Amino acid sequence: MTKIPTIGFISPPAWLDPAPSEFNNVIVEKVRTQQAPLLLPDFDYRLESIASVQNELNLCARSLKAIGCDVVAQVGSPFAWAKTASEAEARLRNKAMMTAAHVPTLMTGLAIVDGLRALHVNKISVNCTYYVPGWRDGFSAFLRLCGFDIIHVSTLAEQGLIAPSTKMEDIGWSMTPELASKSILFAAEASPDAEAIVVTGSGTRTLDILADMEAQTKRPIIAADTILYWAIARELDLTLLPVMGSLSNLT
Questions:
Q1: CA 126 → CA 26, 194, 242, distances in Å?
Q2: Model-level pTM?
Q3: What are the structural domain ranges in the chain?
């Protein structure tokens, strides 16, 4: 009897992550999923705080391994890159989780980098959606450290799609497909020479609009939610469905 793979998702603090229920809709094979949120209910989401949760990440990874998970996937890109000075430092965060749990581990921020490299692209447009300026600058700086040429970067506020005074916590978990689509199209139109469009913010759900947005922009889209699905599928040799757009053909 073939063993059904089990994927464990580490979700950000105090957030009900849709990834565990969504993942079964992007692959041909059947899998089981489990979720372990970082147990930090009063988390303040400053980048300094995000950079300080390695012990909690390791514990979640160990807990998911104890449940029987074959791979652990961490949701939310800043947990890889917040306050890092190099790509190697971000990779060490992932290595620490893997060493603690003794199973393969994946981090959203590193999956974005790996996906871009698998596409063999260099010039990118970065759509930071609901990020505040400090997050925008930290993420774009990390991508530059990884060797990418950023020819455009903007947030929803800079795109004129939300008021500049809007707080990240007011919009980050309530992104609509319409708002996400408008934001992606803005980034695409602002950067005609970009070879790919990066969409960050795991609260920006792109699965239902991914194929349509790629058709409209005529470029691959590497988004924080769906690129993690690609990384999991690659790790477990699973088959991605066409709903995943260009990622379904990316090895």
A1: 24, 9, 24
A2: 0.96
A3: 6-109+226-249, 112-225
